Amino acid sequence: MADEEIALNKRLHDYLQMYVKNIKLTVPKFHITKGTNKGDNYVGLIYRVTIEGIENGETKNIELILKTMPTSDSFVSIRVTKMFQREIFFYREVLPIFKKTLKEYSEIVCRFPTLYYANDEPGKEVLMLENLTQQGFVMKNSKILDYSHAILALRCLGEFHAYSFITRLANPTDFDKLKQMKEPVFFQQPHDDRSIVKNLNNIVIKALIDEDKHYSERVQQFSDNMLQNMIDATDGKAAEPYAVVNHGDIWTNNMLFKYDQEEKTLCDLRFLDFQLCRYASPVLDIVYILFCCCTQETRRKYYNQLINEYHETLSKYLERFGYDSNTLFPYKVLNQHFIRFGKYAAGMALFVLHLFTSNDSDIQIAYNDTSMLEERLKNDSFYRNMVKGTFKDLVDKNYI
């Protein structure tokens, strides 16, 4: 059954009209459907757009993704506006710097969709992006990464982080621009979310009720000073000279995977949604994947292997450009960063584990009402084991 077509508001329709005018596409017809299923995207509205028109006397079809601000006045906030502006900054400023640097080595950066148009006017933010489904890239059905998906994600992450290490040396003037990025989420601000943190922390403590008390004590110590812990973890200056541009929100739904149809195996990946990209230790992206998107069993079996694959891919990529990872980011330093910055995973896990383990698209209301989560702890063994396993492992590895 075909997706139901929808009508955009005048502002978004005008953006599409302006886009086709700029590319000299005449007699355009727009076919617009929802771009994601309910619950797949938590910040923003996504539309899939097909444009039919005439170019140089020939029929042409263009497929793109339109991403814009939520329409509900109650949801739109300064924080959401800044997230959209940060993503536009990534496509307009960060990515061109990486492409410019790697082009000097005859290398193409292709891990991201192409940006066709963006507007960063406050309250009217919009991005028009390449529709990667046309190339066979799809979203994974489950929000949890198994070994095969996790190892591909970490290999591609190693390549992505390598762009920063290369640019730092090959293009230091432009790299200084990247270092000026302000932290998008964790900073001292007038309002605080201590009540939300307390509610979510109580869920973790209840999940650990049958474990040795030192687990709950360590979790409580982390949560008691949550904001400062996360400020420390995301401090790019503290990670120098090894800080890189992080994806910032590198979970399953922000990756598109491609499968070899004959071999039925994973073969490629693209990264999406850079609304939280930041300048910080590479470890932040790694632990987000390992502790928020993987099960305890996956970590138990493959933790060291996954980290080794990340560093090996980064090292090989650096070597292609004549650089040595033993100088730019030694494995010893990587391990030190896990101890120093790995606590980032605990802060993120507090907020996202209930989202990543649920098929309920409205589960985000649990931030202020944990009765639903308490019920899940009793009746949803997968959720309970994810929470328990994640925080036990964070304590056992001395990250918190």
Automatic annotation (TrEMBL):
Q: Which domain of life is it from?
A: Eukaryota
Annotated Pfam families: EcKL
Residue ranges occupied by any CHK kinase-like domain in the UniProt entry: 127-320
Report the InterPro entries cross-referenced here.
CHK_kinase-like, EcKL, Kinase-like_dom_sf
Protein known as: CHK kinase-like domain-containing protein
